[in-house]
Every structure is written in structure tokens, then in C-alpha cells.
Amino acid sequence: MMTGEFGVALMAVLWLLMCFRFWVMVGKRNPGQRHMLALAGGLGAGLIYVLGTMLLGLLREPEKVPIEVKSGEEVRVKLGGE
């Protein structure tokens, strides 16, 4: 799933670039607003990356474990998740 990881990293970089664009647009007379945009850019990109990688981990298909069956009588089926 290298494509998914690349997509998550790309989304984080795009968030950083968007916040940087707003940071450039804000005048130098507003240092507080520029600091908040810088914090939002960094924290937002980190949050996008962490949550994205967590979601990719949840979406991965679990590995199939081969089950050996000697005869048909040994097969048991659970119903209802008990």
C-alpha cells in the first residue's frame, strides 16, 4: 500500500503549502496571526499524517492463515460471534 502512504504524505504537504500561502498573505504587522497560521500548519499536517496512517492500518486486509482440516467432522462453525 505504498500508494496510500504516498497519498497521506501528499495531503499533509498540501496542507502545509496552503497554510504557508495564507501565512505569506498576512501582513508582517500581524505577528500573532502569522504564528497561529504556522502552528496550524504544523499541527494540522502532523495530525493529517498520523490519522491517515492509522486509517490505512485499519483498511489493510488481514493476512489469511491456512487452516488444516483432517476430516469433515472436525470443522466447527461459530454463529453470531459468540
Keywords:
single chain, 82 residues, mainly alpha
Structure explained in plain terms:
It is built from 2 helices and no strands. It is mainly alpha-helical. α1 runs antiparallel to α2 (31-59).
How do the helices and strands line up, and which of them pair or pack?
Blueprint: H1 2-25, H2 31-59
Helix pairs in contact: 1-2
What is the radius of gyration? 24 Å
Approximate helicity band: 55-70%
The overall number of domains is 1
Beta strand %: under 5%
Quick structural summary:
This protein has 82 residues and is mostly helical. The chain has one domain (2-59).
